[in-house]
Design goal:
By secondary structure, the chain is mainly α. It has six helices and no strands. It has a domain of about 90 residues. The chain starts with a helix and ends in a 6-residue tail after the last helix.
Length: about 140
């Protein structure tokens, strides 16, 4: 154990090796920063996709916040969608277009599914009562 401590101490005393340690430390920090940025992008994407059809206030708010963040093209804020994508070497416009296409497809499929679903007799009665007794 003392030998590994001694080797580490010798490594730190050698100025030529200190540059390697410093570069390794910088790489670890850069990797950590990229992991954080990627986690932010993943979280927004997950909220966007998970809560697109939300009916509860919290789910609607999470979807809206994610969508606004994705659609905002503000480079002044370090943690903007555009800046995070650029730091990760991703094209923000390409990802944005893909997510908007996914949204359109999901909403269209949901609307078609709702149109195909037969209404329950209770729902028909409520609709008829709301239209002054006229059946649908």
């Amino acid at each position: 154990m003392s030998q590994s401590f001694t080797n580490t101490a010798l490594l730190m005393d050698d100025t030529t090796d200190f540059g390697a340690v410093e570069n390794l430390t910088k790489k670890i920090i850069r990797d950590g920063e990229k992991a954080l940025l990627l986690a932010m992008l993943e979280m927004a994407t997950e909220d966007f996709q998970k809560y697109i059809l939300a009916t509860d206030p919290q789910g609607k708010a999470l979807f809206q916040e994610a969508e606004e963040w994705i659609l905002t093209s503000d480079r002044r804020w370090f943690f903007s969608f555009d800046n995070i994508c650029r730091h990760l070497n991703l094209s923000p416009s390409y990802i944005r277009r893909g997510l908007m296409r996914w949204k359109e497809t999901t909403l269209r499929a949901h609307a078609e599914q709702c149109a195909e679903t037969p209404k329950s007799p209770e729902a028909s009665e409520v609709t008829a009562a709301a239209t002054d007794g006229e059946p649908e």
